[in-house]
Amino acid sequence: MDLNSQVPSGPIEKKWDQHRFEMKLVNPSNKRKHTILVVGSGLAGASAAASLAELGYNVKCFCYQDSPRRAHSIAAQGGINAAKNYPNDGDSISRLFYDTVKGGDFRSREANVYRLAQISVNIIDQCVAQGVPFAREYGGLLDNRSFGGAQVSRTFYARGQTGQQLLLGAYQALERQIHLRKVQMFPRTEMLDLIVIDGKARGITARNLVTGTIESFVGDAVVLATGGYGNVFYLSTNAKNSNATAIWRAYKRGAAFANPCYTQIHPTCIPVSGHYQSKLTLMSESLRNDGRIWVPLKKGDPRPPNEIPRQERDYFLERKYPSFGNLVPRDVASRNAKQICDEGRGVGPTGQSVYLDFAEALERLGEETIREKYGNLFEMYERITAENPYKVPMRIYPAIHYTMGGLWVDYNLMSTIPGLFVAGEANFSDHGANRLGASALMQGLADGYFIIPYTLGNYLASTKLEKVTAEDPRCKQTEDGVSALTHQLLSINGQRPADSFHQELGKVLWEDCGMARSEAGLKRALRKIPEIREEFWKDLRVIGANEELNQELEKAGRVADYMDLAELICRDALERAESCGCHFREEFQTPEGEAKRNDSDFCYVAAWEFKGRGQPPALHKEALHFENVHLTQRSYK
Amino acid sequence: MNLTLFVWRQEDANAQGRMEKYEAQAITPDMSFLEMLDVVNLGLIAQGRAPIAFEHDCREGICGSCSMMINGVAHGPRPATATCQLHMRHFKDGDTLHIEPWRSKAFPVIKDLVVDRGSFDRIIQAGGYVSVNTGNAPDANAIPVPKVDSELAMDAAACIGCGACVAACPNGSAALFTSAKISHLGLLPQGGPEREIRVLRMVEAMDEEGFGNCTMHRECEAVCPKQISTNFIARMNREFLRASLKHAKT
Ligand SMILES: Cc1cc2nc3c(=O)[nH]c(=O)nc-3n(C[C@H](O)[C@H](O)[C@H](O)COP(=O)(O)OP(=O)(O)OC[C@H]3O[C@@H](n4cnc5c(N)ncnc54)[C@H](O)[C@@H]3O)c2cc1C
Ligand code: FES
Q1: Which residues contact B73 (CB under 8 A, 6 or more apart)?
Q2: What is the pTM of this model?
Q3: Does domain A266-400 have CATH number 3.90.700.10?
Q4: Which residues approach ligand 1 with their CB closer than 6 A?
Q5: ipTM score of the complex?
Q6: CATH 3.90.700.10 location in chain A
Q7: Does A548 touch chain B (CB under 8 A)?
Q8: What are A4-40's pLDDT values in tens digits?
């Protein structure tokens, strides 16, 4: 397998400009002769589909929801980063680049990250022009806030609904192209396989979720923007139906899967309350700007939080990290909360939470200001817990939130299958071993608005493609495979619903491959997962038929893929015998309990190649080189 | 808690629907309404019966997927709350609940509680955007926007497109949804150039999709999970009048 990153030569500040100049262009009148399939309508997919259509390509766009506007991106709360330096506090493209490389614990590709920082400024311009109502100052100019892992204010936001507003901007651009008949939209359609012809991605096979019809769509290139795979853990902050099926099936067709073990835990989620729990709710980490995190000094202190005097509280993040305090990166904040709870100092009915307290901020800024900044988050919290955070501290606990791993892509965002591009959370590109807050929205939109429209054109202009139709026997073959799998799931006729297997799998992953990992734990997980999978294929129960809207069937297909993916995650975590970013191996830590990297042995991207059912996958390595940022131990002290 | 549910069951768009009775047992107050339905569905699956189909995704009140009438009220009894954010602590042991899909000509039922809301997307297609291609934008701070305008635009833009407004309206009108988008974009300078054509086209699309007329019952506002104000409908009506007069002249 060839892992050529295609990073252009030259100084880092010039690479992208030079590359844009060198890329081949598709003649404007030829663009309409090309059809591009975009799977996903989140920030990455909607922005790519709209931008490609604006350029003149014919686009077919797919999503599993009833409308593209409901993609999981809608739920992002906190904000989007950009190196605008409007607050004049010393930000720059170089600083955003540096923060992102450092935040990712030196496991990302420098050139990609630099480009991301460059493009960040264009994104804000584009979104404002679309009518995204970002927060403003009284003078009418845009407001910024700060976010974890940065010492400047570079985060743009729209109340606590930034993802919603950015997605609606992209969705509206997409709907405009649908109106102009440049995009054909296929909602309630789930991609179940990738069609590879002559070694190139040429289409997808999908199931119509209302009628069950299994159909192929062909084109000249395919863009996967299908989001992250955090739901493999069952409980996560992702939307319930977010899934890994599209990227997993592409992996089985030859696309390398990079760094699957880089999964991020978010420090500020509402704690689990019972077995029926179907998902976890995130409270934006912007809350850490004004909220202070603490637990009682004394184990099992029975007093309500308001009655515990200041000197009997442990503000553990501020104590351990005086310069970043409550704004340390997510992995550091999460691990510390877990440690405190493991020590028995956690609070709440389960002991699995810590306080996030606004009492001081309320005093300093007044309720009005706090309400304006975080009103909807406070409301959300109260709704779920029946506790009023204006009166009592919130209780929070970490939860799975984001996946930095994903399909391997080169600088052009093309996977190891020519013609298969991957955008947004579905690729592995920019965040290394840990993503900074407010950087996923930035990356999704950078990929979709400003990168793929160029690099995909270059691919089309420099590739010879044979003519293919959906009637091609090779498409038929893929359809037969998809039908066979669907019918297999329907005919097991066992006792247990898909959810129960998913829950069991999630528990194993959370215990042994969650916030802290060890060789023994990973080996245990690698023993258990195949057992659960075997049970799944023997005892699954899916009610109903293929030829109808069948939500149990949809779930079953996704859980089947999670079983395999979970195994790859653990394998990757075991292989990476170092700690870096969110991948914390207990065996590898500094005396202070921080992640200890091993740059001489592990400064690479792990890209896994599928070798067939029942065969171990092959590991390929893309070496990472740091020429602009010095490899150092991260420190937020 | 134990509850009795009467739930609308309908195999597909063409089938005759009916209410069916189920017992929801061992429900705890901290469960969300959808988690309660999850529990009921697990019970149905265990008995080999078809689970209730309902739409959901984010379960955080933002994607607008969830959509059901609970005892005749869109999204149930709590104000400013989408079904996924409604918790069982607001019900009592022994309660009887009637659960139905949105009812509207423009939202045909697909299965059980799932309806087709494609008409909303088509209203947006008619003009719910600013026509700016990627790469054409000036610097984001080139045009200052008064904070009050941008805050009001944000109030309107908060719409999640769930369709509760239509389901609650005795006329099945989509005025709240449509006016929210018209106001969001019309309040901002970026949306200015297309302000008139937008309102004309979107109102026309709304009528074509079979939504009813707004006669200001204000039921929509009462059920809206994002508390979108009917003031936006008044604003839409003014904009529509102005645009129609101007276009009639030219
Ligand atoms: C609660 C929450 C808050 C967040 N807050 C922030 C924040 O403040 N700032 C930030 O930068 N990031 C944030 N993130 C992360 C960020 O929202 C996501 O990483 C990002 O939105 C992902 O966008 P995407 O376009 O890659 O994918 P998604 O938005 O997940 O879209 C995936 C799309 O793919 C489609 N799809 C998936 N599988 C298939 C299939 N098999 N067939 C057809 N279609 C398919 C779906 O229908 C959907 O349209 C947050 C995430 C969560 C969960
Ligand atoms: S499930 Fe998303 S709003 Fe209710």
Answers
A1: B168, B223
A2: 0.96
A3: yes
A4: A 39-45, 62-65, 71-73, 75-80, 162-163, 190-191, 225-228, 237-238, 242-243, 245-246, 282, 284, 401-402, 424-426, 438-441, 444
A5: 0.98
A6: 266-400
A7: yes
A8: 999 999 999 999 999 999 999 999 999 999 999 999 9
